[in-house]
Design brief:
This protein has helices spanning about 10-15, 20, 30-35, 115-125, 130-155, 155-170, 190-200, 200-215, 230-240; strands at about 5, 10, 40-45, 50, 60-65, 70-75, 80-85, 90, 105, 110-115, 185, 220, 225-230. By secondary structure, the protein is α+β, with helices and mostly antiparallel strands. It has a 4-stranded antiparallel sheet. It has a 4-stranded antiparallel sheet with strand order 4-9-6-7, covered by helices on one side. Strands 11-13-12 form a 3-stranded antiparallel sheet, with helices on one face. Mean pLDDT is about 90; it is low at about 1-5.
């Protein structure tokens, strides 16, 4: 067995992959990972590149390995609404659906591991744990969508901005978990996109970010790099 292909039975590219440790591929054994890896493709996409097109046939699914993916819905008159963000190691796609119901775009530079839809759906029939992992992720996304319904419907503008920054901090910076108090990250969206996502005006977004900065809840460098010295303070501002 060639060492450049396998490490203790697991394909080298899968050994340290977050999608195997925290994502859907954790449900697969070495033989199944090997079978899937034969048809996978790792690739990067620049910010702004469309990854999945609304109402188009879906041929491949992907694991997000790094970066942020923006999900949008398009109305009949061409207007778009940001409906969600995905981070590593989220699964991009919806099994058993031939056409996409939304558009996925790279909000930042992203790295993806893509594989044929048929290959994944075949593995789901062979490995019930894989289907269970996918169900768990989709239920988490449902919970997050409900949380955002509360944020958009009930929270103040200040709480919305704090909630958005808290979500980014917890998903982008691995050091921003419950046991850590500090986070640093690049904003994946422009202020206009943040306004669209939160149902606010650009002026309100800028005003609330400036307020958080002035009260030392956050620091900003080079316009997009955000530093949170105390996650607890930001969480309190978000109403958590």
């Amino acid at each position: 067995m060639r060492e450049d292909i396998h490490t203790t039975g697991i394909p080298v590219l899968c050994a340290s992959c977050e999608a195997r440790h925290r994502g859907i591929c954790g449900a697969l054994g070495p033989d199944q990972l090997l079978a899937l890896s034969k048809s996978t493709m790792r690739h990067k996409a620049d910010a702004g590149k469309e990854l999945v097109s609304d109402s188009r046939s879906v041929e491949r699914f992907s694991n997000v390995l790094s970066g942020v993916v923006k999900l949008t819905k398009t109305l009949s008159d061409g207007r778009q609404q940001i409906v969600g963000l995905q981070f590593a190691p989220d699964f991009l796609g919806r099994p058993f659906q031939a056409e996409s119901s939304l558009t996925a775009e790279a909000a930042t530079e992203v790295e993806l591991c893509s594989f044929p839809r048929q290959a994944l759906e075949r593995l789901m029939k062979e490995q019930p744990d894989l289907e269970h992992r996918l169900l768990e992720q989709k239920l988490r996304e449902l919970d997050q969508a409900r949380d955002w319904m509360v944020a958009l419907g009930r929270k103040t503008a200040a709480e919305k901005i704090a909630s958005f920054l808290l979500m980014i901090a917890r998903n982008i910076d691995p050091g921003a978990g419950p046991e850590r108090r500090r986070a640093a990250f690049e904003l994946p969206l422009s202020r206009a996109e943040i306004a669209d996502f939160l149902g606010l005006t650009i002026e309100t977004v800028s005003r609330q970010i400036t307020r958080l900065r002035g009260e030392s809840v956050i620091r900003i460098e080079n316009n997009r790099h955000v530093i949170v010295d105390d996650i607890g303070r930001l969480a309190a501002r978000a109403g958590d």
